[in-house]
From TrEMBL:
Record's keyword annotation contains Secreted: yes
Keyword Nuclease: no
Signal peptide start and end residues: none
Originating species: Oncorhynchus tshawytscha
Entry's family note: Belongs to the IL-1 family.
InterPro entries assigned to the protein according to its UniProt record, in alphabetical order: IL-1_fam, IL1/FGF
Stated name of the protein: Interleukin-1
GO cellular component: cytosol; extracellular space; lysosome
Length: 252
């Protein structure tokens, strides 16, 4: 007859099975309690001794049985720790400040409410009020990184619109999505919410690049003034006729 002993390690269930014959009228039942591996080993050994050492031959070697059981649970514990660490790894919001962005040709970001797109345009005199102001939220990275770039989320001031990078027809593109600071307060590094994060890499005084955290090596960019394309969009680094460096002017 085969018996199974169930045990739990960090909410991960596992079982150990052994074959043995119990004395008539004797039964055993083990509940799902977080018992230690040593208890499991001792229980099986005790069962074998109750049976006079007949049946499960491995039970006669206590050190070998303990070693095998400890190896099995060590694997379970490691896997459970990795799962928990992964679930805890999140970008955490640290602070926020207001800013505006201009490209290398001094074009400003302007919101086209009809198409819900950001456009890069030259603004003259009295039209400067069209310039988009952003609420830039900074984040702490969940794991140490060699890069000095800081994760940020970019929300349009006075609205619940946030910049995001998602794929359209297989190509990463810049979008505006409705969201909230509460939802974006903590972002799991493996979740789809990472689309709202960009790595702000400072390359000079107030000069920065904004790289998608979801699609690495894709940057927020604008087109040359001579081009008809005004839309602010994503491009890969060193893409011809696209600006990927911006002046990020802080307002508070």
């Amino acid at each position: 007859q085969t018996f199974k002993c169930y045990y739990t390690v960090n909410n991960t269930s596992a079982s150990v099975a052994w074959s043995s014959k119990l004395p008539q009228g004797l039964d055993v039942e083990i509940s799902h309690h977080p018992i230690t591996l040593r208890c499991v080993a001792n229980l099986i050994i005790a069962m074998e001794r109750l049976n006079g050492g007949k049946g499960f031959a491995l039970g006669r070697d206590e050190s070998l049985l303990n070693f095998l059981l400890e190896s099995a649970v060590e694997v379970l514990e490691l896997e459970s720790e990795r799962t928990e660490a992964s679930s805890r790894a999140a970008f955490s919001s640290k602070g926020e400040y207001e800013c505006s962005v201009t490209d290398s040709e001094n074009k400003c970001w302007v919101l086209n409410e009809g198409s819900m797109e950001l456009h890069a345009m030259m603004l003259q005199g009295g039209s400067s009020y069209h310039k988009v102001h952003l609420n830039l939220s900074t984040y702490i990275t969940p794991v140490p990184s060699e890069t000095k770039a800081r994760p940020v989320a970019l929300g349009i001031k006075g609205s619940n619109l946030y910049l995001s990078c998602i794929t359209s027809e297989g190509t990463p593109t810049l979008h505006l999505e409705v969201n909230s600071t509460t939802t974006l307060k903590s972002i799991n590094h493996e979740s789809d919410m990472v689309r709202f994060l960009f790595y702000k890499q400072d390359t000079g005084v107030d000069i920065s690049t904004l790289e998608s955290a979801h699609y690495r090596n894709w940057f927020i960019s604008t087109a040359l003034q001579q081009d008809n394309t005004k839309m602010v969009n994503m491009c890969q680094s060193a893409t011809p006729n696209r600006f990927t460096t911006f002046t990020v002017q802080r307002h508070n």
